[in-house]
Structure formats: structure tokens, C-alpha cells
Design brief:
Blueprint (H helix, E strand, L loop, with lengths): L4 H13 L17 H10 L4 E3 L3 H8 L4 H4 L2 H7 L36 E4 L3 H14 L2 E5 L14 E5 L6 E4 L12 E4 L5 H11 L1 E2 L10 H8 L6 H4 L2 H4 E7 L5 E4 L5 H7 L9 E8 L1 E2 L2 E10 L3 H13 L10 E7 L8 E8 L4 H16 L5 E11 L14 E10 H6 L4 H10 L4 E6 L4 H4 L10 H4 E11 L5 H23 L19 H6 L3 H11 L26
Parallel strand pairs: 2-4, 3-4
Antiparallel strand pairs: 1-2, 5-6, 6-10, 7-11, 8-9, 8-10, 12-14, 12-15, 13-14, 13-17, 16-18, 17-18
Helix pairs in contact: 12-15, 15-18
The structure holds flavin-adenine dinucleotide and 2-acetamido-2-deoxy-beta-D-glucopyranose (5 copies).
One 2-acetamido-2-deoxy-beta-D-glucopyranose binds next to loops.
InterPro entries: BBE (IPR012951), FAD-bd_PCMH (IPR016166), FAD-bd_PCMH-like_sf (IPR036318), FAD-bd_PCMH_sub2 (IPR016169), FAD-linked_Oxidoreductase (IPR050416), Oxid_FAD_bind_N (IPR006094), Oxy_OxRdtase_FAD_BS (IPR006093)
Pfam families: BBE (PF08031), FAD_binding_4 (PF01565)
Keywords: FAD, Flavoprotein, Oxidoreductase, Signal
């Protein structure tokens, strides 16, 4: 029988950490809570307690899901409490490849999904669920969109609080939070996805720093991780623009969290990592008057890994062309499959610039790119509109098997080590990387905000680029193919990136788009802030109710977050 590769990773972490069952330090199983106790919680939350099954089983019980439904984040979010975007996180990899698939639901009972979910509508629902999990000493998880790339919004044998119904949004001209005059701001619930928020902002004549997706929860995991945006080089990170949170903490209390009130938690929640602090029921972000920007989406075809690497080196040598205008650019080098030829897609979002200005901005790179033998420009779509129109995703891709790995690439690499960048791309392609996603979202105001006191990893302030590997596989992939994907980040990709930056220390990574198998998560995700974060965590969550994989305090728990190690 085939051995699933993720098992070796899981086993490795279990061996490293050592199981402690029997020491009395484990939580109780949610399944051991009695029917009448659940039923009493259900009454408290007005019947909004639902059973959770993995999405494959949900579809089967319904009589099937179409491919369009299966792969739609919006469909899964509105209908399937147990759904994760990266479907692999719903799996309990068990050593023999017995996973829960769309066309084979035999093993779905063991899946890595909660037992029950409180489909919260009110703050009181959230408080009831938090108190219930604490009183019964069971594993608790919080989910808004289920986008998480580290699988932090699902856990087996747990109670979930799902926040998708918290869709309130209020724009005000003068927010009164810590002071009486905090200026133009918007307060949003974590159920509101970025796609809807952009359109509401447009209607209000505002812009704000949020992500590039239809359904990512601005007030959920996104802002707690730091939150990058097409506007971050202009206005800073989402965490830099967050001015207040309403949070239900482990005691069940609803706290107002801002620079005056619970200011230590305010420091921690802005960058200290998703899911570790409490349940955010709303977040308030600064807003700015809206303006037009221009997006160019250009596709460059190549003919080989070497040509693609030469193109990326040229790209790196022009990356400072976009500095003065604080232009954002996503530069995605992708292959449809291992044998396909790489294609570069450049999404250039020129903030407050016109089409002719954007053409001029890109001309130096474009001229030299087309002079490389084998490089052709195959499409060039241009749009100038209200900035809120430029993130136009109607939906997000979901229901896929995907793991990620990333690093924040220092500005210094692009200043002094450009000759190392082409070879790094060549290696990344040669080892089988399909998606090398460059995000020019740092520098500019992200760097200028280095004086803000928050838990944002200081690596963000000296970075220029967030470089993300997306490593997918399909349900039909062979064990050899899966093994390749599971080991790519730690065995091959990270080394290629470290050779490029010339830094073999763990470096800094954006915790929201990173590797679950990261070897030094405390240092890589939180850097010098870890010790302070941990003491704040202990103050607000002394018993570790909010434990997520690779989050603050998770080093005290086993990989499942069910047993305390120390
Ligand atoms: C298509 C796509 C596009 C993306 N684009 C961007 C981008 O442009 N910029 C960017 O910075 N990131 C982006 N991301 C990454 C995104 O920031 C992370 O996936 C983030 O974890 C999403 O948060 P969420 O709450 O929507 O997801 P969830 O999976 O619901 O939650 C993620 C984490 O946050 C916790 N959490 C969720 N809600 C709450 C809450 N209300 N209170 C407390 N904890 C909560 C969960 O427990 C979990 O740990 C993108 C992801 C996807 C899939
Ligand atoms: C909770 O109560 C509602 C309404 O009475 C009911 O429909 C639902 O099945 C109950 N949930 C569980 C998990 O029993
Ligand atoms: C790989 O991708 C290319 C380009 O999209 C396609 O033509 C080819 O058929 C694919 N090969 C396989 C094995 O899927
Ligand atoms: C946009 O550009 C105009 C004209 O150059 C300038 O007056 C305005 O302040 C800019 N707006 C922003 C938000 O930068
Ligand atoms: C913004 O772009 C829209 C759409 O292209 C255009 O109609 C409008 O005049 C522009 N507004 C400004 C202030 O340039
Ligand atoms: C399972 O079903 C999907 C969708 O119908 C199909 O693409 C896939 O090949 C099947 N997988 C296996 C292992 O049969």
C-alpha cells in the first residue's frame, strides 16, 4: 500500500515533539462531550450549531457538487462549513494514503475537520462558543473564509466558530476610537470578503489597504498576519492601517482593542499571526479618498527555463523603475505542468497613474525583454479605472491540493545581488516548481512605516518582494508526485532562495502565505517579536484556547494542538 508523503512530515513532527498522551496534559475530545451538553450550547446559540463534514462528504450527501461548485470559494464558503480552500487541509494523512476524496468518501469520517460549528450571528454566539470550549477543555478553531495556506482554520475533533455571517460595514469620516479624531475609517466584520469590500469602498468614494481576492477576510486572518495589498507601497500594510479591533478573548469577554485600550493586545494582533489572540468580531481600518489607477496585465512567453531565468534577471534589474510611483507589481512565473514552458504574467498596478504613464513606466523593461531571443509578448490588457475596480476577481479558486513556501526578499538583494536572481529562478524551475509568485508589495510606505510599534515582522520593513512558491498536486497524483511536492520547500526551494539572498539564516516570511513545514516558524514568522508576543499571549490566553499550527504559543503544544508539551 502506498505511503502518503505528508505522513512522514507529520510523523517527523510527532517524533520531534513527542506525544504526551497519558500525562494528563491533553485536552478532552470534543466527541466526549455529551449530546445534552451540545444541545444546551445549541439552544444558547439559537440553533446555530451544525455538524461538520469534509467537503467531499458534504457533496456526496447532497447528491454531488458540479466542478464549478467544487472549485468556487464563494460556493464552498456559503454552503459547506467544513470546507477549506486548500482541500488537502481537510485531510487526515494517515500513513497509507487513505484520504477523503470527491470520488472516494470511504475514509471521510477521519478527516481533519471540526465536529461541530457555531455559525455565529452575534457576539453572544461567539462568547457562548468560546466559554463552552474553555469549560469543556476542547480544541477550538476559528474560520472566516477558510483560505488559510497553513491549514490553521480547521482541526479534527474540535468546535469551530465560523464568522462568515459577520458582514457589517460602516464608513465614517471621523472615527472616534482611541482619540476623538482618528479620521476617515471603515469598520468591517470578518464575514465580508475583499471583493465586496472594494465595491462598497468605491460607492463610499474611498480606498483602503486590503488584499487581492474575492473572499479573503480583511478582518480575519489577513490583517493579523500583516496584510499586503496593491496599495501597500502607497499606504503601508493592512496592519499599519488597522486602528481598532473588537475581540472576544479566551475569558469570553468582548474587548475594545486600540492604542489606548488593551494596547498590548493591539500591538500583538497587528502582525502577531492569525488565530492566536481571540475572535475578531470587527476591525477598523483607515480609509483614503479614492482615485484612479491603471492596471496592465502582460503575458510574456518563453522557450526554456534558461530563457525564463534570463527574463527574470532582467526583470530584477528593472525593479527600481517602479519605485518613484510606488507601483505595485505581481510577477508570476508559472508552468501549467512539469513539461510545460514557463510563462511570465506581469500584473502592474500603477497607483494614481494614467495609461500613457504606465506604458512609459514599463517601456525600459519591455524593450529589453523583447530583445531576449525566445521572449514574446503574447497579451497586454490595460484598464484605467477607480482603484477599487482593479481587483476584480468575482471568485477565488478553491477545492485544490496546494501547499506553499515563501520568503520576504530584502531590497538589498535587488540592489547588490541581481546576478544571483536569474540562477535562482533557473534552479527553482529545474527542481520542478510550477508557480513562482513574486509580489512587489513592500518598500515605499511599508518601509517608511518602520517606526510603527506593532508585531509586524521587521523583515517586512527592509524587504522589497514577497516571493511565494505555490506547490499543487491533484487527487490523481501518484505517491511519487506527492512526495516530490511535500518535500520541495524544505529540500530544494528554500536553499535556492537563500543562495539568491546570500543569507542562510532562517530569514523572514509572511506567515499568511508560507510553509506549514517551516523549520523555524517562531523566528521566520515573528523574528525578534516572538518573546514579547508570547508573554502577551499568556496574559490574554493563559490556557492556550487559541492554538494554531506555527502560531504564537504553539511551540508548547503538539502539532494537532491537543496536548501540551510543557
Ligand atoms: C485567493 C487568495 C488571495 C490572497 N491574497 C492575498 C493578498 O492579496 N494579500 C495578503 O496579504 N494575503 C493574501 N492571501 C492570504 C490570506 O491573507 C490568508 O489566506 C489569510 O489567512 C486569510 O484569512 P481568512 O480569515 O480569510 O482565512 P481563514 O482560513 O478563515 O483564517 C485564517 C486564519 O485566521 C484565523 N481567523 C480567521 N478569522 C478570524 C477571526 N474573525 N478572528 C480571529 N482569528 C481568525 C483562523 O483561525 C486562521 O488561523 C490570499 C489568499 C488566497 C487564498
Ligand atoms: C441545533 O438546533 C437546530 C434548531 O433546533 C437544529 O436544526 C440543529 O440540527 C441542531 N444542531 C445539532 C448539531 O444538533
Ligand atoms: C502541459 O502543459 C502544456 C501547456 O499548457 C500542454 O500543452 C500539455 O498538454 C500539458 N502536458 C500534460 C502532460 O498535461
Ligand atoms: C494623484 O495624482 C494627482 C496629480 O498628480 C495628485 O494631485 C494627487 O494628490 C494624487 N493622489 C494621491 C492619492 O496620491
Ligand atoms: C477615472 O477613470 C474613469 C474610467 O476610465 C473615467 O471615466 C474617469 O473620468 C476617471 N476619473 C478621473 C478623475 O480621472
Ligand atoms: C476522481 O474524480 C475526479 C473528478 O471527476 C477525476 O478528475 C479524478 O481523476 C478522479 N480521481 C481518481 C483517483 O480516480
Amino acid at each position: 500500500m502506498a505511503v502518503n508523503p505528508f505522513t512522514s512530515l507529520l510523523f517527523a513532527s510527532l517524533l520531534l515533539l513527542g506525544p504526551v498522551a497519558g500525562t494528563g496534559a491533553c485536552r478532552k475530545s470534543a466527541a466526549s462531550v455529551t449530546k445534552s451538553q451540545w444541545s444546551s450550547l445549541n439552544s444558547t446559540v439559537d440553533g446555530r450549531l451544525v455538524s461538520v463534514v469534509p467537503s467531499a462528504l458534504w457533496c456526496q450527501q447532497r447528491g454531488g457538487c458540479t466542478d464549478a461548485e467544487w472549485s468556487s470559494a464563494r460556493f464552498r464558503l456559503s454552503n459547506i462549513p467544513g470546507a477549506m480552500d486548500s482541500y488537502n487541509y481537510e485531510q487526515a494523512y494517515d500513513g497509507v494514503g487513505l484520504v477523503c476524496l470527491r470520488n472516494n468518501t470511504a475514509n471521510c469520517a477521519k478527516a481533519n475537520v471540526p465536529l461541530y460549528s457555531v455559525e455565529a450571528q452575534t457576539v453572544a454566539d461567539v462568547q457562548a462558543a468560546v466559554k463552552f470550549a474553555a469549560a469543556h477543555d476542547i480544541r477550538l478553531v476559528v474560520k472566516s473564509s477558510g483560505h488559510d495556506f497553513l491549514g490553521r482554520s480547521t482541526a479534527a475533533d474540535s468546535l469551530m466558530i465560523r464568522m462568515k455571517n459577520f458582514k457589517t460595514v460602516t464608513f465614517v469620516n471621523n472615527f472616534k476610537g482611541a482619540s476623538t479624531s482618528m479620521g476617515s475609517a471603515v469598520t468591517v466584520g470578518p464575514g465580508l470578503g475583499t471583493g465586496d469590500l472594494y465595491q462598497l469602498a468605491k460607492a463610499a468614494g474611498k480606498v483602503l489597504v486590503i488584499g487581492s481576492a474575492a473572499t479573503v477576510a480583511a478582518a480575519g486572518g489577513y490583517v493579523q498576519g500583516a496584510g499586503h495589498s496593491i496599495l501597500s507601497r502607497k499606504f503601508g500594510l493592512a496592519a499599519d492601517n488597522a486602528i481598532q479591533f473588537q475581540v472576544v478573548v479566551a475569558s469570553g469577554q468582548l474587548l475594545t482593542v486600540n492604542s489606548q485600550s488593551n494596547s498590548d493586545l493591539f500591538w500583538a494582533i497587528r502582525g502577531g499571526g492569525a488565530g492566536s489572540w481571540g475572535v475578531i468580531v470587527s476591525a477598523t481600518f483607515r480609509t483614503y479618498g479614492t482615485f484612479n489607477s491603471t492596471i496592465f496585465v502582460q503575458t510574456y512567453a518563453t522557450t526554456s527555463h534558461q530563457v525564463a531565468a534570463d527574463l527574470m534577471q532582467l526583470h530584477a534589474s528593472h525593479i527600481f523603475d517602479y519605485e518613484a510611483t510606488r507601483t505595485c507589481q505581481y510577477f508570476f512565473l508559472q508552468k501549467a505542468n512539469v513539461t510545460a514552458i514557463p510563462i511570465l504574467t506581469l500584473y502592474t498596478i500603477a497607483i494614481n497613474q494614467t495609461t500613457p504613464q504606465t506604458t512609459a513606466l514599463l517601456a525600459p523593461f519591455q524593450g529589453k525583454a523583447l530583445a531576449i531571443s525566445g521572449v514574446t509578448l503574447t497579451s497586454n490588457v490595460q484598464l484605467t479605472s477607480d482603484t477599487n475596480d482593479l481587483v476584480f476577481f468575482a471568485d477565488d479558486i478553491s477545492g485544490i491540493d496546494l501547499i506553499t513556501g515563501s520568503r520576504l526578499i530584502p531590497k538589498e538583494t535587488y540592489q547588490n545581488r541581481v546576478s544571483k536572481i536569474g540562477p535562482a529562478y533557473k534552479t527553482l524551475l529545474d527542481v520542478g516548481t510550477l508557480n513562482i509568485l513574486g509580489h512587489l508589495v513592500a518598500g515605499g510606505q511599508v518601509a517608511a512605516n518602520s517606526g510603527i510599534s506593532s508585531a509586524v515582522h521587521p523583515g517586512w520593513r527592509t524587504a522589497l518582494v514577497h516571493l511565494l512558491m505555490e506547490n499543487p498536486w491533484t487527487d490523481g497524483a501518484t505517491i511519487t508526485e506527492q512526495n516530490h511536492v511535500a518535500t520541495l520547500w524544505n529540500d530544494k526551494q528554500l536553499a535556492a532562495i537563500q543562495k539568491m539572498t546570500g543569507d542562510d539564516s532562517p530569514g523572514a516570511a509572511y506567515s499568511n502565505e508560507a510553509a506549514q513545514v517551516e523549520k523555524h516558524p517562531e523566528e521566520t514568522f515573528f523574528g525578534p517579536n516572538y518573546a514579547k508576543l508570547k508573554s502577551i499571549k499568556t496574559k490574554y490566553d493563559p490556557k492556550g484556547l487559541f492554538i494554531v499550527r506555527n502560531g504564537v504559543g504553539s511551540d508548547d503544544w503538539n502539532a494537532q494542538g491537543t496536548c501540551r508539551l510543557h
